C-alpha cells in the first residue's frame, strides 16, 4: 500500500452537480475510517465532491494520520510525512478523478483536524482552506522547509468546544496567531461542549462556504 498513490483505502464520491468546482478532503478522527465524515461533508456542501482517505498510522489498533505521543505532544516526523503524502495523494487523485486541485478544502475532526491544519502549513499549495473541528496546535515551532509561506487568500475555520481537553485554548490561540501572521483569513468558533462537532457550527460554516 503506497500512501502517495491511490492504493490507500479511500472513498471518492463525485458531486451530482456537474458544475461543482469544490472538493472536500475529509480527514477522520482517531479510530475512525474513510467512511466516517461523509455525512459531515454533505452537510457542509451537498454539491461538493468528497475525497476521504484512511489514516495509515496505527496506534493501539486505531487508524490515525499520525501518533499522539502524549497529551499535546505529537510525532512530528509522522506529521511532516503525512502532510507530504496527503499532498501527493491529492495531486494523483485530481488527475484520476478530474476535480479542480485549486479548490480543495481539507475538512477534519480531532486527529484529522490536526492533519488538515498541518497540511495547510506544510503543503500550502495543496488546499484552498481548512475546516477543523476539535483542533489543536501540533508543532511548538512549525518546521517550514522553504521559509514561512504566504497564506493570503486561504480560509481557515477552527470550531472547538470550550470544555474540550484535547483542544486547550492557549494552544489554539497560538495556532490562530500563526495562521493570521501568515496571512490566512481565520474564523474561530466555540461551542460550550467537549470534543464534539456542533451542528450550529456546521450550519454557519456551510453558509459561509457557499
Number of alpha- plus pi-helical segments: 5
Overall residue-averaged pLDDT value: 94
Per DSSP E runs of 2 or more residues, the count of β-strands stands at 11
What is the name of the CATH class of the domain at 67-209?
A: Alpha Beta
Helix coverage percent: 25-40%
- Strand percentage lies at 15-25%
Which word captures the global form? globular
- Return the CATH architecture of the domain at 67-209: 3-Layer(aba) Sandwich
The end-to-end distance, rounded to whole angstroms, is 36 Å
- Fold-level CATH name of the domain at 67-209: Rossmann fold
Largest sheet: 7 strands, mixed
Radius of gyration: 16 Å
Can you lay out the helices and strands and say which pair or pack?
Elements: E1 10-13, E2 23-27, H1 38-44, E3 49-53, E4 57-59, E5 62-64, E6 68-70, E7 73-74, H2 76-97, E8 104-109, H3 111-122, E9 129-133, E10 155-161, H4 169-181, E11 185-191, H5 199-209
Question: In short, what is this structure?
Answer:
This protein has 210 residues and is of the alpha/beta class. It is built from 5 helices and 11 strands, in the order E-E-H-E-E-E-E-E-H-E-H-E-E-H-E-H. Helix 2 crosses helix 3.
Features:
210 residues, alpha/beta, Rossmann fold, seven-stranded mixed sheet, two-stranded antiparallel sheet, 5 helices, 11 strands
Can you tell me about this structure?
By secondary structure, the chain is α/β, with parallel strands linked by helices. The chain has a domain at 67-209: Alpha/Beta hydrolase fold, catalytic domain (Rossmann fold), CATH 3.40.50. It has helices at 38-44, 76-97, 111-122, 169-181, 199-209; strands spanning 10-13, 23-27, 49-53, 57-59, 62-64, 68-70, 73-74, 104-109, 129-133, 155-161, 185-191. The strands form three sheets. It has a seven-stranded mixed beta sheet with strand order 1-3-2-8-9-10-11, sandwiched between helices. The N and C termini lie far apart (36 Å). The model has no long low-confidence stretch (mean pLDDT 94).
Amino acid at each position: 500500500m503506497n500512501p502517495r498513490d491511490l492504493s490507500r483505502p479511500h472513498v471518492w464520491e463525485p458531486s451530482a452537480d456537474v458544475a461543482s468546482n469544490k472538493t472536500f478532503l475529509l480527514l477522520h478522527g482517531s479510530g475512525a475510517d474513510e467512511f466516517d465524515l461523509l455525512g459531515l461533508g454533505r452537510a457542509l456542501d451537498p454539491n461538493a465532491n468528497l475525497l476521504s482517505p484512511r489514516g495509515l498510522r496505527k496506534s493501539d489498533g486505531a487508524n490515525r494520520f499520525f501518533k499522539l505521543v502524549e497529551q499535546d505532544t505529537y510525532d512530528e516526523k509522522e506529521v511532516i510525512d503525512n502532510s507530504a503524502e496527503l499532498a501527493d495523494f491529492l495531486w494523483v487523485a485530481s488527475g484520476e478523478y478530474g476535480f479542480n486541485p485549486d479548490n480543495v478544502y481539507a475538512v477534519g475532526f480531532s486527529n484529522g483536524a490536526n492533519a488538515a491544519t498541518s497540511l495547510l502549513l506544510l503543503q500550502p499549495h495543496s488546499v484552498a482552506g481548512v475546516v477543523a473541528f476539535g483542533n489543536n496546535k501540533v508543532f511548538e515551532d512549525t518546521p517550514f522547509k522553504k521559509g514561512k509561506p504566504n497564506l493570503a487568500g486561504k480560509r481557515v475555520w477552527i470550531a472547538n468546544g470550550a470544555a474540550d481537553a484535547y483542544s486547550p485554548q492557549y494552544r489554539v490561540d497560538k495556532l490562530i496567531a500563526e495562521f493570521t501572521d501568515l496571512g490566512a483569513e481565520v474564523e474561530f468558533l466555540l461551542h460550550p461542549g467537549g470534543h464534539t462537532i456542533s451542528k450550529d457550527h456546521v450550519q454557519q460554516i456551510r453558509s459561509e462556504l457557499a
